[in-house]
Amino acid sequence: MIGLLISIALSGLAGYLAANIMGLNGQWYVYVILGLLGGIVGGIIFGLLGFASYSIISEAIVSVIGACIVVYLYRRLQK
User: Fold this and answer.
1) First to last CA, the chain
2) Of 9, 12, 15, 25, which one is least surrounded by beta carbons within 10 A?
3) Count of beta carbons in the 10 Å neighbourhood of residue 54
4) How many degrees, rounded to 5, is the angle at CA 18 between CA 70 and CA 34?
């Protein structure tokens, strides 16, 4: 249970970092939602590639990469 809460918090932070990396301007709750989706997407993509994240640092990297992918798709859908 505590691991899930840490994962959610980390994904929200990853969304904020990814939004700043990708230059997205908007409200903070958009960053959190994109980060949560990015954590899921990153976990799926890296899982399919055969990589697993066992530490908080590797989970943060996977979440940020996944969130960057989701932010990119979000920006493409807005246009």
Assistant:
1) 39
2) 25
3) 7
4) 40
